[in-house]
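Lecture 7 notes: from sequence to structure.
We start with the chain below.
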Amino acid sequence: MLRRSTPTLLFKRFKHTVLGIDLGTTNSAVAVVGTDNQPQILENDEGKRTTPSIVAFTKDDKVLVGLPAKRQAVVNPENTFFATKRLIGRKFEDQEVQRDLNNVSYKIIPNNQGDATLRTFSGEIISPSEIGGLILQQLQKNAESQLDEKIDKAVVTVPAYFNDSQRQATKNSGKSIGLDILRVINEPTAAALAYGCDKSRKDGIIAVFDLGGGTFDISILEIDNGVFEVRATNGNTHLGGEDFDIMIMNHILQNFKNETGIDLSDDRFAVQRIREAAEKAKIELDHADEIEINIPFISGDKHIKQKLTEAEFDIMVQPIIEKTIEPVRKCVRDAEIKFKDIDEVLLVGGMTRMPKIRKVVEQLFGKEPSTAVNPDEAVALGAAIQGAVLSGQVKNVVLLDVTPLSLGIETYGGIFSPLIPRNSAVPIKKEQMFSTAVDGQTGVEIGVYQGERTLVKDNKKIGQFKLANIPQGPKGSPQIAVSFEIDADGIINVSATDKTKYPKDSPNYGKPNTVSIQVTEAGLTDGEVEKMIQESAANKKADEEKRKLYEHASRAEILCTDTENALFQFGKLMEDEEKAEINAFLKTIKEMIDDIRTGKNLHDPNTLNQKVNDMQNVCMTAIRNVAAKQSKQ
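Predicted structure tokens for the same chain:
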């Protein structure tokens, strides 16, 4: 028996080898940086440079990963799991998950927490994160076999628009198999690293158009002397090659039904065979004007024999391609540049091999896109470079990524107070001092939000916690530091600390009072992100007016509290007419505040302020009268 020889690679046994892994929707790849400081793809056991992101469970309890799993998918469709990256970190009720229910051969069900999970034919429940772990484990084994050493550290890539829950679930995939994921980086950023680390490349602004098997990302980066700064990012975490496959699959199913009257859509075995034929047809059309789809004995003695031209395919998938255009335009606007300012457009992801997509990209950017890097391998190569940076092997490379939405907390009056603006470079940490809004407050509820609108009710709530045991005191006296931190993986951590300087005789002296949470259930889909950004732009002027009105209402509410305290302290000494006038003002102002809060009547802020000033003048006059009476006595 002949054994495939291992290719000669320029590898040195580094003390801390860090793998670069592209955990893709359709295919995955693993790379490492060699002694020449250049990243290289590691082949799998079959001698291939990419591994299908497929896991299968056989009836004799074997677990197959990669090409072996793909080969038996037709005879074992309900236990063969593919494209599960589209489900990772998602809730079962998400629109994207619901769309996939009828497009896969396996069962997707909710767990007790409402997360999307997978069920094998035998009834075993497994999470998409665990499937990801099995794929990572196979890539790890391939790398260890090639390098002849034990490796337990990696950098793994994710779509730029993955939310916190999806990023955390990806890290959990590594944790489940003992692989320490040092960093989770965005796929287009990784591709830019692979492109920009070639010393022959010039510095400048590049756009990375990344259309893979299940996700689409567009990022604008500026490369300057080894610093990779992401200016803006956009995309769709549920748009990719799988959607093209489904389009062809439905086309084949409908044609067969029209020809024979037989509907195969509920036949899982037939659907799996057609899906595989659809994927093959899609790939063949990258290089041919017309192809023939042949699937023998698809139903009894019935065969599928259909022709598909490149022109027909282009028309069929035009709606999918058009979904990439608007995110590109928004990304360019967010980067505060023009299309003409972009020096080069880099294509990443297997779907960018499609001639129609290349034409659309060229028309959109006004220049021919670059094919300088292998679209299937660029992301893994970039991840390997980042891994080498973290291990100290590669110097003089700095990676600055961004967060897609503003992050902040709810402050008095339902106002959203951002601490980290949208498109801020990460990792980042911001701290801001807040205080209590009413007298005697012993705790604060802190709501954490993500979005772009003025009022918290118009943004996405992603967490809440309470800082308790604050000593009673006047409003505004406690000093509460709220800290937001987004780590290099894009995962959010929020903490609140009571930093009030208490006297030595206070029971709180020297006692730390801190509470923190890690936000891992953001649950923001790409659609929600886009909707927030669009609504923010459309309501910018109205939001500014609302913010000012709410701020006036909050000020009025605080001054009403001050006035009530003054009545409590001096009321017995005031004239009845004075008290009656003050109480009348309090009643009117509180009704106006309530109208503003509920949206019943957005009063003119000048009218509200005048009422508050009049009330204060009456109250101060009454207090001065009391003081005058007391001095005479």
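Points to note: The domain at 241-320 is CATH 3.90.640.10 (Actin; Chain A, domain 4). The chain has four domains: 19-239+323-401, 241-320, 407-538, 540-632.
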